Every structure is written in structure tokens, then in C-alpha cells.
Amino acid sequence: MRRQAMDRINKMKDPSFSNESPSFLMEGFLFSCFFAMLIFPNMVFSGNHWFQSLHLLKWVTAFVPIALIVLVLWASSFNKRVVFFFSVDFFALIWLAFLVYITLQPLWVPISSPPTFLRSWFFFAGLWVLYVVASNFFSMEFLSFMLWGSAISGTLSVFFAELQLRGMNGFFPFILATPGHYIANTGQQNMLGLWLAICVLNTMYLYIKKKTIVSGIPIIIFMAVIEWGLWNTTSRSAIFGIGAGIIFMLIMSLRTQSREIQKKSLAVILIFFVILGVTIEMNKGRIGTLRQKFADVLENPASVGKRDSIWLTSWYMFRSHPLQGVGLGQYKWHYLEAQRSMRALHPEKAWQFTYWAHNEYLQWLCETGIVGGLWLLLLAGWWLWSFGGIIWRKIRLPHEILWGTSLIALILGTGLWTRPFHRIENVLWMVVAFAIANKEILGTQPLFSFFRKSKKAFFTLLGVGVLLGLLFLGQGMYGDYLLSSSFNVKDVDLQRDYLERAGKSFMVQDLAQKQLAYHYLNTGERLRNPQMVSAGLNRLYDVFQHEPHGKDLGILLNWGHRLNNETLLNELSPYTQ
């Protein structure tokens, strides 16, 4: 068993390229792309030159490297001097089958917001492409470099967050301008917590790989800094995640690793808790906030950390569309309607608006229905059954699998409490971890091996899809830039022209339509032009019908009262009861 496992890992170390030119050029290209997509997205943000000042550049640094890999492989498949092995396993095939299902979903599900659906579709499809590419071309020799990159990135993120907390970030334009918040460049406390949890787990694995205690000291220093930041985020979901990751690391070490690895695993877990103790003593303020959050969960278990209303609303949404779901990415646009049904029977629950279910599995069930739930259950059941079999039989595995399974557990654990699957910068790590771990956990042998002719056809399909995705992203970036530019001009007609042109970009069409409605309302109010106000209200109400949003509901209600428009108020009143 051990020999077979090592043989498979050795195959993973070589992306199986041969060429008359040096193969290190291709390997260097692959390394650069994987490094860029895994390390940079958590470090960058778009900035004030863009309407979406946080996420846009993250999407670019995540998806463009994936696209470049596919395009280079597409070109290589036509070059007779370049030979590379490429296959698709059963896990990828099941994933692809469901990708086809959600592609056809608009045929039987009324999609409220097509732009939202398409953005979500490219997101989901891009992850599938990454899994297939990483399964074939992510060399194990890359892994340590990726983990060291995350350690450096995580440490910088902690320094950024500390500067933000003290209001000292203004001197540094490359740090998100959010003084008083502990979020670095992730945009949200939970997401910084998740990123730092990933980085802590990565440093723990790097320590396990070291041969001596002395050589592990630099890693412990990085780990201490990052763990300090992890606890200071006060993110319960990140704590759940790192807890799940450590539990899996311990189980995998005790059942599948050598005695030497077991000792190092126990040592680094002990070091983790020592750092926790030091952090508690040195930073009672932030740790006190974290204690209060956990105390609230224990003292008010029925509120589930103030998620009870959201989860109950999500359940009512699923009950209304049990078989087919509301459509990929459409959860947020069905929330107010589902909340209305929920509060009709539970008026004591709080009224609120949110984009997310704060539980990835519940939101997946709402959007894809029973079919999506069964698909997820099939994959999870298969994976856990295979994992349990390995643990039960104590099969010796390469230590790279220790890292992969631990990271999968970490991210899937946070999915019970927040939304890691909707942040590309973090879910990419999970996909790569699956690509590494599945070769041993599932024992997935290649289901389809592509040779020259079939490889050309496959990469042609994939390449055309990638080009369409890049076109979608590029046009969306142009539309986003036009939206941002509309705020930088004073001429009303020029503002409107920017917004109308932005509306021609399908990726940001919904954003442009909403901003155009705001433009008519604000301009009409300022110029005392009732026709423009009326046009703005009509446009905003049309947007609200497709994308019901709490903010827009408030604006429409406000104008309804100001204009004494009983018709509008009656249409909106069910959402507020």
C-alpha cells in the first residue's frame, strides 16, 4: 500500500510534460499561475477607481491565471513537439454533470436576475476547470512554495489589520481604507479570519515537514503572528474552521502517518495552544469580545448567534421551491419574499435583509433544490465513506494528504457558519486541496485519458469557454469603470450617458440599472422635476421586482409616503409586516 501511494505521489510531482525545449519553462509558467491565484487575491482590492472597489481585482487575480493555463494548454495540444498526459477523474465527472444541470436550470426555474446567475455560473464553472487542471498539473514540488507564500501573505494581512484598528492605514494606499476595523484587505472580519485560519494551518504543516526543531523556528514565528491575528478577528466561524482542521490533522496523523510525523503533529498542535494562551494574556480586549460572542451562543442557543431568523427564512424559501430551487445565485433576491412568509407565522423573529444564508449548505439547498442537495450528499457521502475506510484500515498516506484533508475540513467547517464558498480567494485553496487529496482518499484513477485528437477537442471546448469568460469579465470591468466614472463628473447628461453605456455590459447590467434609477431620483429631486422623479421611481420599482433589496425597499417606502402614493405603499406593505 505504501509503495503504491508513493508511486502515485511521485507521478504527481511531474506534470508529465516533455518537449524539445526545456520543460522548466512550462513548469515555471504553471507555478507562476498557481502562485498568483492562491496568494494574491487576499492581498489586493480594486480601489476607488472602480465601482466595485473590493472584489473586482480579486476576481481578476483569481480567474485570469486559470484562464491562462487553459489557453496555453489549448495551444500546446496543437503542437506535436509538446506531449503531456491529461485525464478527468470520476469526481470531476460528477461535478461536470451537475454543472450541466445548473446550466440548464433557467429552462425550468424563473431566474429573477440573469446577471447574478451568469456571474455565479462562471464562478462555479471556473472552480471545476481549476480542479481538472490542478488534478493534472499541480506538482507536489509547488506546495511548499505556496504555503510559504501564504505564511508571508497572512503575516502582512495581520500587520494591515493592526494598522487599520489603530487608524494608521491612511499612510498606505495599498491597505483598504477602513480605520477602526480588523479586516486587512479582505473586506470582512469573518473572511480575514478564514484566510488567517488557512495560513495558520499551512504553517502547521510546514513545521511538520521540517526535519529539526531549529529549522522550524522561523515557521513558528510566522505562525505566532498569524495566530495572533486569527484570534483578534473575533470570528467564530474561523475558530470553528481551524478547530475542524486541527481535529482532522490529528486523526490523519495518528492513523495514516509515521511515528515521526505523529510526534511533530502533536508538537505543533501544542504550540498552537501555547500561542493561544499567550494571546489571551496579552490582548484581553479583543479576546474579551470573542468571549462575549461565544457566551451569547451559550446563553441564547435558540438565536444561534443571531442567525435564527436567517436560517428559518432560508427554510421557508426551500419549502416554497423544494424540487428545483430558486436558481443559482438567486438566494438574495428571494429573501424578502421568504421572510414575509416566515414572519407571518413567526412575528417574533427579527426583520432584516441579507445576501447570504450564513450557512453554505442551507443556501445551496435553497438555490438548487433537492437535486442539488442530493448531489452534494452523494459527493460528501462518497468522500467521507472513503476517508473513514482509510482511517479504519490505518493505510499509510503521503503527508501531502494530511495537509489536503485538514484544509478541506477547515473550509467545509466554516461553511456551517458563514460563506467561504462565495469568496473566490479562499475557495480556490479548497479546490486545490481536493485535487491533491482525492488521488488517495478516493483512489480516483483517470476515467478518461485524452490523447492527441481528443485532447485537441477537449481543450478547444475549454478554451472557447475560457475566452467567453474573459470577454464577460473584460466587458464587465469596462462597465464597472463607467459606473465609477459617472460619480466623477458633474454634468447630468454625461452621468446618464456613462450609466446607460455601463448597462450594455451584461456582467454589471443590474448594477447600472439600479444606479440609473438612483440618478433619476436624485437629479429629479434636486431640479424639482416631477417627471424625472417619476421615471426614477418606476425604474427603481422595476429593479426591486427583479432584485428585491432592503435598501431599495426603504427608498421606495420613503418616496411612497412623501408622495402619498397609496398604490406603491400597498404593493410594498407585505414586505414590511
TrEMBL record:
Species of the source: Aminobacterium colombiense (strain DSM 12261 / ALA-1)
Every O-antigen ligase-related domain range: 228-375
Name of this protein: O-antigen polymerase
PANTHER family cross-referenced by the UniProt entry: LIPOPOLYSACCHARIDE BIOSYNTHESIS PROTEIN PA4999-RELATED, TEICHURONIC ACID BIOSYNTHESIS PROTEIN TUAE
Transmembrane residue ranges: 21-44, 56-75, 82-104, 116-138, 145-165, 192-208, 213-231, 237-254, 266-283, 361-385, 397-417, 429-451, 458-478
Highest taxon above the source species: Bacteria
Taxonomy of the source species: Bacteria, Thermotogati, Synergistota, Synergistia, Synergistales
One term under GO cellular component: membrane
Pfam families: Wzy_C
Main location: membrane
Membrane topology: Multi-pass membrane protein
Localization per record: Membrane
Xref: InterPro entries: O-antigen_ligase-rel_domated, WaaL-like
Keyword vocabulary terms for this entry: Membrane, Transmembrane, Transmembrane helix
